Each structure stands twice: as structure tokens, then as C-alpha cells.
Amino acid sequence: AAPTDYEAEDALVSQGVVESNHAGFSGRGFVNYTNVSGSFVEWTVNAAQAGTYALTLRYANGTGVNRPVDIRVNGAISASAVAFPGTGAWTNWQTKSVTATLTAGLNKIRATATTAEGGPNADKLTVDAADAEKPTAP
Ligand code: GCU
């Protein structure tokens, strides 16, 4: 299956706001995390089958300070303090990928800021099912 995009502005947001004042985002805007640890964006993604998927977050960080986030899948830590370093400007968008194991059907992918600066500005999450096509041995 082709990669699927999930816009941050359509996700569940706790302690953050949807904005559109920095150009280059996809969709209607991006999520500006509140500058506090614990702020999060949570996407509900549909996986056709269980397996390993690439999760790619498109983001901007106009500061020189890393904005790490924990990635949780269905409540369990999948990747801790994933680094989102500065991109040079709030209008410079880059991507960061992690792999995660998803279950078949709906999965909650939560990206939670771990520092007082909050997360980076979050544009979208892309879920690539390529690896999930491989069947596991019986
Ligand atoms: C600026 C910027 C925001 C960003 C914020 C931050 O206010 O305009 O888009 O989210 O800094 O530091 O998080």
C-alpha cells in the first residue's frame, strides 16, 4: 500500500494549537505545541495488517535547541526522546522517521514533548506500510 499522510491539524491535540503562520506546511496548517513537557499530538492511523511500519513526522524547529518527543503506540513507549533538532527557521520543514510495530486496524500514535520547550511544530505524520507487506513465518 502507498504511504498514508495524517495531518497534525486533524489529530487529537493536548496543549497545543493549530496555526498556519509559517509557510510550507501541508494541509490547512500545523500544530504548535505549547512550550511545556507533556504536550502531545495523537494520530489515529489505520494499519491494514500487523507489522513494522515507518512513521515519518514532518516538522519545523526554528530554534537551535532540540525538541525531543516520546512516541507511544497504543499507550506503550515505542521510541523515547526522538530528537527533533533545529531546522534553521520555522518555515524550513524537515522529516524524522522511526519504525514502530502496529496492530491490524486502528492504532493511536502519540508524540509527547519531553522538555519544557514542548515539541517542534508538527505538520503531518506519514505511515508507510511497505514493511508490513511481508508475511511472518507460520
Ligand atoms: C514561535 C513560533 C511558533 C513556535 C514557537 C515555539 O512563537 O512562531 O510557531 O511554535 O515559537 O517556540 O514553540
From TrEMBL:
Transmembrane segments: none annotated. It comes from the Bacteria. Residues 4-128 form the CBM6 domain. This is Glucose/arabinose dehydrogenase. It comes from Allokutzneria multivorans.
